[in-house]
Each structure stands twice: as structure tokens, then as C-alpha cells.
Automatic annotation (TrEMBL):
Name by which UniProt lists this protein: NHL repeat containing 2
PROSITE patterns named in the record: NHL
Intervals holding NHL repeats: 115-146
InterPro entries with a match to the protein in the record: 6-blade_b-propeller_TolB-like, NHL2_NHL_rpt_dom, NHL_repeat
Key words of the record: Repeat
Length: 366
């Protein structure tokens, strides 16, 4: 549980955890970690502190009987005992549990070894070795837990994509995950920024790329849709609902709705957040056939004009179209960010006489 700096357990059958009474199947609970973001080891698992633990590997056999943990923000590898829950240091970091900046790229023993943001670990029970995806150093490290010795297995430290004649001549780009094959010969590496799975043969010391093929008839995660149906956002219950005066419109006519949203001074739209508008017509869905039902709101100073063309074949002389907006905005210094939803309901009176041609202004003052 990287976000809460803890290790949790899900009971797939009835059983018990260290220092716990009998637990029922399906129980999910905290196993280790106080929730404080720290590099704190402790004989009591709930008093230990992790810092964004991101990778786990199980060594259930004696004498190990532990979980290996890639504790990314403290740049350490830790162990959690399966017998008594004790959390112990293996490699990396430093002795001050509050210092999360003791990172580097140094082969060594125990605390003298340095990692930088390790994300993955996998246990090789055939050789009694632990492999570590040392993500920000762009390397794969190998650790002997008996001696606490950590050395570089593969990678030069350059963030690139070179498959050399040996492990140490090859390169990675933020490797993030590891898995070892059942017979212990092949080590699979999720080479994240190269968008590849690399395969390390631990016996021949060669590296290759796992080929991924897809036949013409293959489907991935269900059938491929030519046009994916967009999900209509749900406005918060606190969103004000503004009912506009009815307007007259004729079949084939294009109505225009101009957003006039008066934001608080000193605010801006949140960069990267999907502020948008969208149309709905509950009970009158025929109004939206062939229309552009949604769009983005990219600027406070240049707010969009939304168009709705009345279908030539009208199924009702009266209808209601809803124009909703969902906004994400922040103060200029980024110290506070808000979300706001607004819904405008526009009754329509459809007649063959010429209807309203002026844009309808959708005004709202925050």
C-alpha cells in the first residue's frame, strides 16, 4: 500500500498472521507499517515505518521466512518476518529513519550499499539471491541476503535501450518490475520507459526482448470499437441548476449557447484537468442525434460557444436540452484547487416559424 506506507494482507483462507489471533477467509488488514513515511525498523510490525513500499517478493522457506520489500522512497530493501512480523533493514538508506534522501548508486554491503528508488524485487530460491529493479539508477542489482552484499547485475546506469553482449554492457530506462521463471533460469524485466519486457538468461548471461505478437483476429480486453462511447460525467449534488426562459426554434435551425462563466478573481483553470461541457436531453434523446455532445473548456478568457442543430424530423413540439459544465480551477499560486458543476436547462418550443437567432448566454457568477 504505497500511498499509506504500509504492507497489508488479504487472507485467501482462514489462518493467522504473526501476533494475530485466528482470522477468517477474506479478511484484509494491515500487516506492517505505522502509516508514517519513514525508514524505521522495529520488532513490532505496526510500529515500523515504510516510505512508499512498491515491490514485494516472498521467501517462505527457512532460514529466510520473510517478505522482501522494495521501499522506494527510502531507497532501501527491507524484510518483514513471517514468523514474528519484525521489520529489518537489508540494504540501502541510512540509520536516521527520517532521512529519505540517502540514495545513490553504490555497490556495497548493508547500509553502505546505495540504491535510488527501487520499485521491484524478486526472490531466486534456486540460488538464494534477491534481484532488485533499481529504477532511477537504470540497473538490475543482485543481493545476497546472507551477507547483505549488493552488486550490479545488469545495466550501465545510462537511461537508454542497448542490448549488449553482456549484462553489464546492456542498458535499461527505469526498470520497474521483476519476475523470475519457475526453473530459475530466466529473469523477466519490465523496462518501463523502453516499453519492453526484457529477458535475462541467468545461465548464459544474455539479454533479449520478449516478442509480443497479435494476430489479426485477436482481441485485447474485449472487441475493438471503432468509436468508444464516452461516459457522461456526473455533476456533484451541490451543482446549481439554472432553468432558462423558453426559446423558439425551427427544424433545421442551429441554436448557439455561449458560456459566460464569471470565475473568482485570481483563479485559473487547472492544467491537465478535464474541464468540460456536455449535452443531455432526458426523454428527448432524438435531439442529440448527429450532434457533438461534449467538448473541453480550455480557457477562462475564451469560453466556448456550443451549437445544437434542431433535427429536421422533430418528434415533439416541446423539449428540454440540458447544458452542463464541470470545472476544475485553482488559485494562481496553486495553493487551493476547486471543482464546480453547473447545469443549465433550456426549454425549447419547436415551430415552423423562424425561431430565435441570437446566441443564448449561459451566465453564472461564482
Amino acid at each position: 500500500m504505497a500511498g499509506t506506507h504500509q504492507i497489508w494482507a488479504l487472507l485467501l483462507d482462514c489462518g493467522r498472521l504473526p501476533k494475530k489471533s485466528e482470522l477468517k477467509k477474506g479478511t484484509c488488514l494491515r500487516f506492517a507499517g505505522s502509516g508514517n513515511e519513514e525508514n524505521r525498523n522495529n520488532a513490532y510490525p505496526h510500529k515500523a515505518g515504510f516510505a512508499q513500499p512498491s515491490g514485494l517478493s516472498l521467501a517462505s522457506e527457512d532460514p529466510w521466512s520473510c517478505l522482501f520489500v522494495a521501499d522506494s522512497e527510502s531507497s532501501t530493501v527491507r524484510t518483514v518476518s513471517l514468523k514474528d512480523g519484525a521489520v529489518k533493514h537489508l540494504i540501502g538508506g541510512e540509520r536516521d529513519p527520517t532521512n529519505l534522501f540517502a540514495f545513490g548508486d553504490i555497490d556495497g554491503v548493508g547500509i553502505n550499499a546505495k540504491l535510488q528508488h527501487p520499485l521491484g524485487v524478486t526472490w531466486d530460491k534456486k540460488r538464494n539471491l534477491l534481484y532488485v529493479a533499481d529504477s532511477y539508477n537504470h540497473k538490475i542489482k543482485v543481493v545476497d541476503p546472507k551477507t547483505k552484499s549488493c552488486t550490479t547485475l545488469a545495466g550501465t546506469g545510462d537511461a537508454s535501450n542497448v542490448i549488449g553482449s553482456s549484462f553489464t554492457e546492456s542498458t535499461f530506462n527505469e526498470p520497474g518490475g521483476l519476475c523470475i521463471g519457475e526453473n530459475g533460469q530466466l529473469l523477466y524485466v519490465a523496462d518501463t520507459n523502453n516499453h519492453q519486457i526484457k529477458v535475462m538468461d541467468l545461465e548464459t548471461k544474455t539479454i533479449s526482448v520478449l516478442p509480443v505478437f497479435m494476430s489479426e483476429n485477436a482481441t485485447v480486453d474485449g472487441p475493438f470499437l471503432v468509436e468508444k462511447q464516452k461516459t457522461v460525467p456526473i455533476l456533484p449534488k451541490s451543482a446549481p441548476a439554472i432553468r432558462l426562459p423558453p426559446v423558439a426554434a425551427s427544424p433545421g435551425q442551429t441554436l448557439q449557447f455561449k458560456l459566460r462563466l464569471d470565475f473568482p478573481s485570481g483563479t485559473k483553470l487547472t492544467e491537465g484537468a478535464p474541464s468540460c461541457w456536455f449535452l443531455t436531453a432526458k426523454g428527448n434523446e432524438w435531439l442529440l442525434q448527429g450532434q457533438i455532445p461534449s467538448g473541453e473548456i480550455e480557457s477562462i478568457s475564451s469560453q466556448p460557444t456550443i451549437q445544437l442543430q434542431i433535427p429536421a424530423d422533430c418528434l415533439s413540439p416541446e423539449a428540454v436540452i440540458s447544458i452542463s459544465v464541470l470545472l476544475y480551477y485553482c488559485s494562481m499560486d496553486g495553493s487551493a484547487c476547486m471543482m464546480k458543476g453547473i447545469s443549465f436547462s433550456q426549454p425549447l418550443q419547436i415551430t415552423h416559424a423562424q425561431g430565435c437567432t441570437a446566441p443564448v448566454e449561459l451566465k453564472y457568477v461564482f
